[in-house]
Amino acid sequence: MRIALNEARCSGCRTCQVICGLHNFAENNPKKAALKIIGHFPAPGHYEIKICDQCGVCAATCQFAAIYEIAGVYHIDKKKCTGCGECMEACPSQAMFRHRAEQAPIKCVACGQCVELCQRGALYDADSKEVQ
Amino acid sequence: MNGYGGNVLRLNLSTGEVKVQPLGVEMAREWIGQRGFIAKILWDELKPGIDPLGPDNKLVMSTGPLAGTLVPAGGKVSFGAKSPATGIYGESCMGGHIAAEMKYAGYDVIILEGAAAKPSYLYIEDDKVEIRDAAHVWGKGAMQAEKALKDELGEDFQICTIGPAGEKLVKYACISHDFGRQAGRTGMGTVMGSKNIKAIAICGSKSIPLADMTTAVAKGKEMLKGCFAKENLDEWQDYGTAGVPVWANKIGAFPTKNFQSSYLEGNEALDGKIMREKMVINDKGCFGCPSPCGKYCYVKEYDVYTEGPEYETTALIAGSCVFTDIEQVGYMNYLCDEMGLDTISAGNVIGFAMECFEKGIITTEQVGREIKFGDVDSFKFLAEQITTRQGIGNVLAEGVKYAAEQFGRGSTNFAIQIKGLEWSGYESRSAPSNMLAYMTCDLGAHHSRAWSVTHDMAVGRKVLEGKAQKVVELQHIRPFFDLIGCCRLQWVEIGFELEHYPEIFRYITGFDYSQDDLMKISEKVWNLTRAFAWREIEDYGRKYDYPPARFYEEAVTSGPNAGDTLTKEALEYLLDDYYNLRGWNKNGLPTREKLEQMGLGFVVQELQGLSRKLA
Lengths: 132, 615
Known about the structure:
The complex is a heterodimer of chains A (132) and B (615).
Chain A: E1 3-5, H1 15-25, E2 35-40, E3 46-51, H2 57-61, E4 67-70, E5 73-76, H3 86-90, H4 113-116, E6 123-125
Chain B: E1 7-12, E2 17-22, H1 25-31, H2 35-45, E3 59-63, E4 77-82, E5 89-94, H3 98-104, E6 107-113, E7 120-125, E8 128-133, H4 142-153, E9 158-161, H5 164-167, E10 175-177, E11 181-183, H6 188-194, E12 197-203, H7 213-228, H8 233-239, H9 244-250, H10 272-278, E13 280-284, E14 294-299, E15 304-307, H11 311-321, H12 326-339, H13 343-358, H14 364-367, H15 376-388, H16 393-396, H17 400-407, E16 417-418, E17 421-422, H18 432-440, H19 453-459, H20 467-484, H21 489-493, H22 500-509, H23 515-536, H24 550-553, H25 568-582, H26 592-597, H27 601-609
């Protein structure tokens, strides 16, 4: 799945973060989500969605070869990851996240769970729907 | 404990002591959460007769077991205390994201005791809890303060604040959060101000344990998708409650010109469609919401941002104070929000003052200028006078009941309140069940517990029989959502079915309750808060349940229900029927039998100890 964004449609409900944590960590904890919703209030009054676009800069940056690609999606090998954080700094989308209970950063693996529960279409599958 | 943050955080602001106690299983099982916890804690811990604005009062912030999980709109938190507006049980809930956040930090309940010696805010990051200096945000508007603290602490913090009205102890100051959600009613912002607390900032990183994760996730998804599939979802999320004013006028229920009428001439200009065209820049949802009703607006004419106006704001500002320009209403909404005034009470009080002025009960000399219905400058002037407690604002800041007692000359008849709480947005002379709902609401004249205008329309607006039954039923269902930490609007507005909730409640908490069991707990809380009022006020009872004389002595002046009134006899009939169904005595007080049947033996004992005569 190619996850695409229509930020103007985001209502900031963060259901995407809840299901992400549940699906990828089996924990009810949106703080372990691989995406983040940032509100810009009171002005200009909109939400920003931080999520990986699978550009691969993280993999190119990692000194420990801990980030690998399968079918255009980058995954972190938690055994190899030292938690140095260089990939996070290099990420052009600022879409890799740190949780205090996890050594490795958290990044999107394009599972599409967030898309399934975004009725607003702020997150959508660009493979099945035209880019908006 | 499954479904819960697991802890009660207790801060003594006078001594600086911070205590974390585990949430007891019995407490969770018997009182569920949120409003249930608040009512039980306030009953157990407050001595009757305390000053609501003194250090002996406690501000209890609590959410429920479904908050922060994968359920539709699990983002509700309530604040409770002895109310400075009514002197009885006070409570108000709000959405946003702070309910979920407090659970991720590990807390279901936060209790503020005592009072800080200087302006402070609470910093809560998981187990790190500090009472910090708030000198730099004291005096700021509620949203300005939230923004300043977000900039300082980081985006991950969820923050609630009070505005200057809370600092100045205006009796209807609200608690604000997420740049536009408010716990507006019963003066919870006033209590927070009395404790010198400007803000509560929370950031949590923990997981909420679930009793049966796989099933809970599957059921949660089913519920969310059930909401997504509702027919009127699109209309609801386009307009939210802003779609309601025109309807409320059409059926003659819009509180117009301080409730003289139930129809506002020119109301079509307040319609949600016009508002969306002119002002809405974003649909804003609370945590986990499948049907975001927050309409975030930029009001170009005044160059301000505001969330809303919501229906209740439009009803009390546009209706009660007579405005038909949605941009003006948006601007006044913004003013109240920044000042930290509950728009319902503020609109009600200001509409009352405008009527008093028109009738010559208060004068230019007293007010300091002329004021009139439909004038933005008059509204702004009064809102500012109230917030700063200057001149006549110092009287109006005490609420409409107190102001009428001061102004005299018959103004009590049109001080639209019950139990000291200003009436919210439905004129109800042509809706007896809704009238009864507000009359018997444990908080005062408020719609959150039961709202039944559509029931009156369905079964006949003049009919009295069976109305009390509906009110009792709704007083258990609607506040049930305030036990579990969820918004009720999916059920109320898009028709999402109630029966899903006990099931997901079981998967999340492991407590096996039927819908009837949960309604019984809701009823138990209802009896407890009524008993709380009686514990505070010796002669409490029936006489506290009547609406102002306007509703039974004056007829609706215009619109589809012009000429309507409800007689005193009709009100007596409704109350008799209601008390009987509740198992209370003729004076509207719970009987020993009823309390014991509800598992409230401890209430019986305490009331007897205070020489209250239980039937």
